Every structure is written in C-alpha cells, then in structure tokens.
Amino acid sequence: MHKNHRTLLAAYALAVATTGTGGPAAAFELGIIAFQMSAETHARVANSAATAAKAKGWTVTLLNSEGALPKHAEQFDALIAKKVDAIVVAMGKPVEADAQFKAAKDKGIAVITVMSGTSPHTLFDIQVNEYKVGAEAALYLLGVLGYQGNIITQRFDGNVGTRIRGKVLDIVLAENTAVKELAKHSMARTQSWRDDVRGGMQALILKHRGQFQGIWASFDGQAFVIDDLLKAQGMKKGQIPLVSIDGGPETYRRIADPESTLTATVAIPFEPMGKAVVDAIETIVVKKQPKTAVTQGPYLYMDAILVDASNVKDFAK
Amino acid sequence: MRTALERYGTALAGLALALFFVAAAPNFASGTNLLNVLKETSFLAILSLGFTLALITAELDLSVAEVASLAAVVTGALVHAGQPALLGIGAGLAVGLGAGVLNGVAVTVLKVPSLIATLGTAAIAKGLAFMITGGVAFVGRWPSSFTGLARDTILGVPNVVVWMVAIASAAVFLVKSTRPGAHMTATGEADEAARLAGIATARMKRIGLALSGLLAGITAVLLAASLSSAAPNMAGDYFLYAIAAVLLGMTMFEPGRANVPGTLVAALTLKVLGNGLVLMGADYYVQDIVLGVIIIVSVALSATALKQAAFKL
C-alpha cells in the first residue's frame, strides 16, 4: 500500500483506538445529548448526569449537538440504532426533532429532558420555571433600586432561556415605569461572546456614566465581564447593583467578595438536575416503577433560589 | 499498481473503516442504521459538492454553511407563514444562488480573493438569518407537500438520498462530459494558460461559485423539510465537515484535485465515522479530535490545489 494511504489508515486506527471503547457492554446504557456543550449551563447538566450515571455503573455515551439541529437529530438516530436503554437530553429541541423523539418512544426507549420543554414522546421535563426565574431577578433589581432610576441591560436573544428572562424583564419594566432601560446591549457573537460583551458594555457604561443606577445581565458569564469593567472604573459593591441569573461557584465568590459589584443571582440547580434525571431513569426504567412515582405531570420542577449577600455563605461552600 | 493505490487507497481505507464498525460497533450494519447514515450523508454531500465545484475552478467558498442557514430561514419563514411550498422552495434556492452570484462578482469583478469574499458573505448571511428570526427558530407541523421533499421515500430509499445521487450524477456529468465543465477544470488547473487558450476563466469561476451557492440553497431546503424547522445557525455545523469532505475527497480518485466522486465517498466516510463512534460509545469530543486528525492528514497528503486557492492573496 502506498505510504500516504498507510498514513491515513493509521490515522483512522489511531483515532478509533483513542475512543477507549469496545469493552464488554454494561447492563444499562444511557445516552446523553447536550444541545450545546460550549454553553456552560448545558455542560453542567450533561456532565452531572454522566457522573451520576457512571457512579451507578452504567455505560454512558455523552454527545454534543454543537447547537445544530441536524446534528441533534442525527445523534438521536444513532442512539436509537445503538439501542440504548434511556436517553437524557439537556436543553434539547423536542419540537424541532419531533420525528426522532417519536422514533425513540416507538422503540421503547425512555427519554427524559432537562430544561427543554415537554413533548408527547418524553416522560417529562426537569426544569426550573424560566419565567419565574426571570421575574425574580427583575423584581430583585427593581427592589434594590427602590423602583425608580435607570438601568442598563445586557441581553442574549440567541438562547431560549436568556431570551425568556429578557422578555420577562420587559414585562416588569412595562408595569414599573419609574425604572427606565437607559440602554441595552444584545450579545451577537456566541463563540467570542466575552469580547462582544466587554466591547458593548464598555461603550454603554462610558456613554451613560453617572446616569444609570443598576445593571441587569441575562446570565452570570456576562455579569462577570461587566463586574470586571465596573471594578476597573473604581466602582464598589452596592454603588451600581448588578443582577444576573445562573449561579455557580464563581458567582457565589463574587457575590461574597466586597470588591466585586455582583449583587445577586438566581441560582439554577444545574448539577442537581443532572443527578435528578439519572435518579428518575433508575426509578422508572431500572426499577420499573410508574412515572408518577417521580412526578405527576409533564414537568419535574426544581427550585431556583435567589442568592445575595444575605444567603451566599450557604452556597459558597 | 502504485497508481491504483494512490487513486483508491483512501476509499479502501474508508471501506476498511466501515468493515471495522460492522465488526465492532453494535447495530452498525442494521438496515435502519445504514439508511440513517445514508440520509445524514446526503445533506453533507450536497453541500460539499458545491464547495467542490467552486474549488474545481480554484476558488474557495467558505460561505456555504451560513448561506445554507440563511436559505433555510427564508424558506422556513415562508412555509411557516402558510405560503405555498413552491414559493418557499424557490426563495431558498434563490437565496443560495444569489449568494453564489454575489461571491462570483466579488471575486471576478471586484477582484477580492475568494477566501475573503466568501467569509464576508458568510458574515452577511449569518447576520441576515438572525435579523429574520430574532434568534428564534421557525418550527411547526409543516405541510407534507414540503416536508415530503426530504422525508418521503421512493421504494424504501429516503428522498434525500435520491436527491444526493441525482445531484452528484449531474455534477459528474457537468465536470466530465460538458464543455463548461472542461473549462472549469482548465481554469482551476492553470488559470492563465486557460485564459490564453480562449477560455472565459472569470465566467467559469462565477459559474463554480454560483453552483456552490445553489447547492447550499438545495441543502437548506432539504434540511428545513427534513426537520420541519429552520434556525439561524442551522447548517453552521456543516462548515468544518464540508471542508473535511472535500479535502478527504481530494486524496482519492483524482489525487490532489477536488473531484465529485471523492467528495461523495469522503462525506459518506465522515458520516460512517461519526455514526460508528457513537455506536461504540465514544464521547462527543472524540469525534472532534478524529475530525481534526482527518483534516490535517488529508491536507498533508494531497490538498495542493486548496493550498493554492487559500494562499493566492
């Protein structure tokens, strides 16, 4: 064989060998599809579910749809062909991939989604209520401002959760007209979003310096960038309340840090949701208990908790 | 013997890979799975064939994926609004063709290198797709007169596979059996010599890029029909895979040259690889690593033409 093709064949072999798979099949196979692993929240749910499943001795196939609907559908097809025992979908698209979800159900494969919305082809969806989460963050910020003043907002309309949060903020602002949205920046780029947020918010903060009393960000990652911008301008905690949503160790560290301007977040239990979905599959698929043993309706709601200086020590452990 | 191995070695390696998965990956060889692989190959293959036709004239089209996303969104918007399916299909194809023509004019009239011109078109297409959708996908139970384009079957074969075979056949016919095809090839191999020989090289490049755009439009319509939805980043994931398919295709049949059969077999190989890895339980990042390895090895082996296209700034 020509040496070039030996090289290519060797590359294939090396690539396949690096999968580290091919061992004896475990008793229970779980497929996990995260819609966009580059989004930290998706990854937190999926990784938590994978860890919980492996702890039970299950075989796990963890897939990333990379935010692409065709790939989402393809991965479903492949897991169905693989005849996994159950599928977990983190922040998936059950409506768009309806045919694949139906095919899984028709093959008797249990599907439970996390923060994806419900489908007639899934058992249920585990989620926090994004509308409630958005309302909590918005009302907290208005409360800190005494329901008057100007705010700047950092939005992201490319994700369903952050888009809902922004729309709920709009409703809250429409009913509380003494608080005005002085300016907003909508994040356009998804790969280099930190740079996008930094550039946009830096311009708005400079332009409106002294004219705004609070900042709202659609997720914590954006708030970190804004916090750094405000700190660089000598702002201290409480001067310009900064509120966002998601939660996580870095968020709690900043809320507890007197040098940080990050005031509060609504903490979404991503890791507990990942664990809960695996527990639910164990109950329903492995132990053969009815779905009602886990939840009655189409949702299994989990609590999102507002975290600020008063309770951050309970989270920052 | 050596020549035969040069021409068919990569294809044989792909075949060996498929046989490996037949033996090692549970359910890989099931009829349903193989049909799924073929179906999934179709979208990538059609998009990659467009890239191939542009590259045959020594021009890169890095806008194929974003143009496909925009065309899908335009088609989806019309179908979602209850407009006739034919109007949605026509609009999607027009968007693809329009973007290809725009690329052709930018490259041949404005003299912008295709690497830059098509990146610019990609950015415009992405912006327009988000402007139309506001980031929210068009989703619904669309009429079967539209979804049937991709979802129906002919004698058990999914329509998208039939589309792929028809388009690939047409592309082979164009390149190998027509005067414009010969002129496109001559333009790509020796631009100046072809021009001196009386070939309208600029027109050939415009044809290559326009066909690339048109095939992006066709891919978009089929994707939207298959998924009954259209999102602004719908085909973004195909960008790297389309490049990989063309590069890998250049290592077989006509080594060192973009060619239709090579692209087709390469697209199938990539999809076989992805499917087989999932069936073997490989985690998602392994697929990215494997794709990267294949791109580097393919380019190192024989993508001379692509290197020339990329660096003639």
User: Structural class, judged by helices and strands of chain A?
Assistant: alpha/beta
What is the structural class of chain B? mainly alpha
Mean pLDDT of chain B: 91
Distance between the termini of chain B: 38 Å
CATH names the topology of the largest domain in chain A as Rossmann fold
CATH topology of chain B: ABC transporter involved in vitamin B12 uptake, BtuC
What does this structure look like?
- The complex is a heterodimer of chains A (about 325) and B (about 325).
- By secondary structure, chain A is an alpha/beta fold.
- Chain A has helices at about 5-15, 40-55, 70-80, 100-105, 130-145, 160-175, 195-205, 220-230, 250-255, 270-285, 310-315; strands at about 30-35, 60-65, 85-90, 110-115, 125, 150-155, 180-185, 215, 240-245, 260-265, 300, 305.
- Chain A has a six-stranded parallel beta sheet, with helices on both faces. A six-stranded mixed beta sheet of chain A has the order 7-6-8-9-10-12, sandwiched between helices.
- In chain A, helix 8 (about 220-230) links the parallel strand 8 (about 215) and strand 9.
- In chain A, helix 7 (about 195-205) crosses helix 8.
- The longest helix of chain A has 17 residues, at about 270-285.
- Residues about 20-25 of chain A have low confidence and may be disordered.
- The model of chain B has no long low-confidence stretch (mean pLDDT about 90).
- Chain B is mainly alpha-helical.
- Chain B has 14 helices and four strands.
- Chain B has a two-stranded antiparallel sheet. A two-stranded antiparallel sheet of chain B has the order 2-3.
- Chain B has helices at about 1-25, 30-55, 65-80, 85-110, 115-135, 145-150, 160-175, 180-190, 190-195, 200-225, 240-250, 260-280, 285-300, 305-310, and strands spanning about 140, 155, 155-160, 230.
- In chain B, helix 3 packs parallel to helix 5.
- The interface between A and B is large, with 54 and 64 residues.
